[in-house]
Write a structure and sequence with these properties.
Shape: globular
Radius of gyration: 16 Å
Distance between the termini: 37 Å
Strand content: 15-25%
Order of helices and strands: HEHHEEHEHEH
Structural class: alpha+beta
Number of helices: 6
Number of strands: 5
Strand order of the largest sheet: 1-2-3-4-5
Helix content: 25-40%
Largest sheet: 5 strands, mixed
C-alpha cells in the first residue's frame, strides 16, 4: 500500500542512481506536501503552470496515485526544503508488442540556479530504471531541438518528429 503522502512506493527507486545525489539532497517520489516545498515553482521553469491551488494539486495528486501508472520523482534540497528538480514517467499499457508497456518521460525540469549539478541527467536515469522495473519495452520523450544533445548524453536516440494540436484557448508555451 502506498503512503497517502507519496505518489508511489520509493522502494521501486534503485540505489545506483540515488547514490549519485549530492549530500543534503534526496531523490524520491513526489509527495503531497511538495506543493509547500516549491514543486510548482520548480515546474514553472519548464512551462506555464497556471494558478494551481493546494486543493487542485491534491486532487490531481490523488487521481494520479489511484491510476497507478504515474511516477513523478523529485530531488529535494534538504537544507532549504525546496524541490530543485523533477521528472515524470507515465507507463502506457499497449496492445502492440505482446501487450507491452511504453514509458513516456515528461516534464523534466531543473530549477534555476541548480543547473550543472547533473540533476537532469540523474532524473532521466532514474526514470529509465523505473521504466525497466515496470516492464516497459521502450521509453520515449519529446523535446525541443536545443535539448536533443542533452538527451542523447542520457542514452536516448532521436527517432522522429513530434506533432501536436492544442485545444482552443490552451496556452502554447
Amino acid at each position: 500500500m502506498v503512503s497517502s503522502n507519496a505518489l508511489f512506493e520509493n522502494a521501486i527507486l534503485g540505489t545506483s542512481v540515488r547514490s549519485q545525489i549530492p549530500e543534503n539532497h534526496v531523490l524520491r517520489a513526489l509527495e503531497l506536501t511538495d506543493f509547500n516545498k516549491g514543486y510548482m515553482d520548480c515546474l514553472a521553469n519548464l512551462t506555464i503552470t497556471g494558478d494551481v491551488t493546494s486543493q487542485m494539486f491534491a486532487e490531481s495528486f490523488e487521481e494520479m496515485q489511484r491510476a497507478g501508472c504515474y511516477f513523478v520523482i523529485v530531488i529535494e534540497d534538504l537544507k532549504t526544503s525546496t524541490i530543485v528538480a523533477s521528472g515524470t514517467l507515465v507507463v502506457e499499457q499497449k496492445f502492440l508488442r505482446n501487450c507491452g508497456r511504453v514509458g513516456h518521460i515528461e516534464d523534466i525540469v531543473v530549477a534555476k540556479g541548480q543547473q550543472g549539478k547533473r540533476f537532469g541527467f540523474t532524473v532521466i536515469k532514474q526514470l529509465l530504471e523505473i521504466a525497466t522495473a515496470t516492464g516497459c519495452y521502450k521509453s520515449i520523450l519529446d523535446c525541443s531541438q536545443e535539448n536533443v544533445s542533452f538527451y542523447e548524453k542520457c542514452g536516448l536516440e532521436n527517432k522522429g518528429i513530434q506533432m501536436a494540436v492544442y485545444a482552443p484557448g490552451a496556452a502554447k508555451k
